[in-house]
Design a protein that fits this description.
Length: 156
């Protein structure tokens, strides 16, 4: 039995949102290392982007999309902060990042990242996760079709 044309859209949306979270976290970590700070406020636009991807792809399953948006936002934040902490430890030890990650492990990297956060940064991470869920849950108004077009080619 063949799948319907739009049946994999939520799965594609989840995969896309996860990749957006991880790629955005890597860019966030790079910017934070360049500026020599954690830059936790970058979690807010990342959360909006994750939420927007899931809002677009999950459609009627917007509650599930909102839950995944919160989870992906928190995972992206943890990934970015773990990368930042690992890079700082690598610089202090005079080692390559890949060697440092193998030696200290993810638990130590996240412990170092957590120890460096202050209340405002924790609040921005929580706000970013809630913002991602809110954007994913929000139902946008349908856009009018262009002049002369009777059906939406995207299936909406």
């Amino acid at each position: 039995m063949a799948a319907k044309p739009g049946s994999f859209t939520p799965l594609l949306g989840l995969a896309t949102a996860l990749m957006v979270a991880l790629a955005g976290a890597a860019v966030w970590a790079l910017a934070a290392l360049w500026r020599n700070g954690d830059l936790c406020l970058l979690a807010l636009p990342l959360g909006v982007l994750i939420g927007r991807v899931l809002q677009r792809h999950c459609g009627a399953w917007r509650g599930v999309g909102a839950v995944f948006a919160v989870v992906f936002s928190l995972a992206g934040s943890a990934y970015a902060l773990g990368l930042i902490a690992s890079a700082r430890v690598a610089m202090l030890m005079g080692m390559r990042l890949s060697d440092t990650l193998g030696r200290i492990g993810a638990d130590m990297a996240l412990a170092v990242a957590w120890a460096r956060l202050d209340r405002l940064e924790v609040a921005s991470l929580i706000a970013a996760a809630l913002l991602a869920g809110g954007v994913a849950f929000w139902r946008s108004k349908p856009r009018p079709l262009p002049f002369g077009q009777e059906t939406d080619p995207r299936g909406g």
